[in-house]
Amino acid sequence: MDKTSKKKEGIARLMELAGTKKAGLTAACTLSVLSSVCRIIPYFTIYRVLQMLISCYSSGETFTFASVRTLVLITAASAVLYGVFAYSSAMLSHGAAFDILYELRMKLMEKMGRISSGYYTANTQGSVKKLLIEDVEQIEGFIAHSMCEVAAAIATPLLTIIVLFIVDWRLTLVSLLPIICSFVILAMALKKPDGSQHQKNMADCKTKMEGTIIEYIHGMSVIKIFGGTKNAFKRYETDMNAFTRSVHDTAYYNANGMGLYYAFFGAQVLFLLPASIIMLAHSNAYAEVLPKILFFLVVCAGLKEPLENMMNVSIDSTKINVGMKRIDELLDEPEITLVGEGKLLTKFDIAFDNVSFTYPGSGIYACDRVSFNLP
């Protein structure tokens, strides 16, 4: 298959399924970015107020509300606009998400009526339920929340870092050092092929376990009648233990990398304090340096949240990729060719003409060249 005909995957495939709703999603993401801009504006006003306070204190001048009235109005306006943009973004994204959710479920249900019943033999009720409910709901959650958060998660840290560079490039580099280290550690962990395999294995074990639970509960009356409780429970126990082992293996595999990641990720203050002491020691006027230091201590503490959102969005996108693959596997299932569909029947005879059939993987024919007529 050449590159031009290669099927899209992940978020690109999700946008393809969105169809006419892409315009609404684009508008929602744009409004989310604008809300991020409004969220950054108070950082500038806070910095200016700090400068004025410390300048007045060092010079002995009187600090008045009139001197900061404009900054207060700008801060209040940015807070109002942030609420308006964020609310509008959420309304658009949720509306698009529920429309896409409805269309996708209808498409899947129509497809399920046109495929071979062998699909339901090869797949448990739990796996089909997970596909139609959990995987589709996960997509709805991603569109309604995470897609706009992608835009905000990228815009907010970038705008914040630009503000920090404007205030002081030296303290900005010091603040970014632990973040860069944490992302390098995370990237190295995510690049390992075993990591994605662990995630896939855990998802597969969970699907199998859920299918066994549903079948175990639905078939309880039959199991008791035929005295098969022990064997049925054994299968349930085996699948439960397999899922537990997969969670345990995944957690231990990620333990070292994630431990180092979180250790560096929130360590900005540990890097800022010695850098601030050095700057104060070599400064001629504390009034110039102190507002910058206080500003960085306040802002860098809040920088962790948008960066964590970025990481969470990347994890959610990985889950979406797995869910989209399952949905596409169902949509790509071969359909049964219906002969005479739409014709008005005049007689209702049943005829088998040299019919052979075998269940997938059995190797034994359930019907072997069977022919008969039922008037």
Please explain how this structure is put together.
By secondary structure, the chain is mainly alpha-helical. It has a single domain, classed as ABC transporter transmembrane region fold, CATH 1.20.1560.10. The chain is 78% helix and 5% strand. It is built from 11 helices and 2 strands. Strands 1-2 form a two-stranded antiparallel ribbon. A hairpin with a 6-residue loop joins strand 1 and strand 2. Helix 6 runs antiparallel to helix 10. The longest helix has 46 residues.
Tell me the number of strands.
Answer: 2
From the spread of the alpha carbons, the general shape counts as: elongated
Kindly, what is the distance between the CA atoms of the first and last residues, rounded to a whole number of angstroms? 49 Å
CATH superfamily: ABC transporter type 1, transmembrane domain
Largest sheet: 2 strands, antiparallel
Q: What share of the residues does DSSP label as strand, in percent?
A: 5-15%
- Number of continuous helical runs: 11
Shape-level CATH architecture: Up-down Bundle
Q: According to CATH, what is the class?
A: Mainly Alpha
Provide a quick synopsis of the model.
The chain has helices at 10-18, 22-59, 69-112, 118-122, 125-167, 169-191, 193-218, 220-225, 229-265, 268-281, 286-331, and strands at residues 350-358, 365-374. With 375 residues, the protein is mostly helical.
